[in-house]
Design goal:
7% of the residues are buried. The chain has seven helices and no strands. It is mainly α.
């Protein structure tokens, strides 16, 4: 039954496999770039508020809306990838990092402070000549 379904929807599965491969490669390439470009005080709540206040309210609303839509796309794509080929959990985590929800900053700080996460991130930043993250 499943092989018949796959044969009947072959273009869809080819498209999904291509999207999965592209997302996998994109995450491998972009995560180090994003970690390196992250400001050292990214997780400081006061600095975050100052950064957002510099934007025009309409532009801030549009950017936040687009960021949340992109986050939802990543999250649901990651969910689909759990059952298909690809990095489902990683893609879902990227999506969650883009979506605004209550308690998000606390969750991010909890994850980043993990003893196996922060040293890896800071060593990557050190190799790129950037100062370590300040929490």
């Amino acid at each position: 039954m499943i092989p018949e379904f796959i044969r009947a929807h072959r273009p869809l599965f080819i498209w999904l496999a291509s999207l999965s491969a592209l997302t996998f490669l994109g995450t491998i390439l972009m995560i180090p770039v994003l970690i390196i470009r992250m400001l050292p005080d990214f997780f400081d709540p006061e600095q975050r508020a100052i950064y957002l206040q510099r934007r025009h309210p309409v532009m801030r609303f549009i950017l936040v809306l687009l960021k949340n839509i992109l986050g939802l796309l990543f999250f649901f794509s990651g969910f689909v990838m759990l059952f298909m080929l690809g990095q489902g959990l990683l893609t879902m985590l990227i999506g969650l990092s883009l979506i605004n929800f209550p308690g998000k900053r606390n969750l991010e700080r909890y994850i980043i402070q993990h003893p196996r996460v922060l040293p890896v991130i800071n060593s990557l930043r050190k190799k790129a000549g950037k100062e370590p993250l300040r929490l």
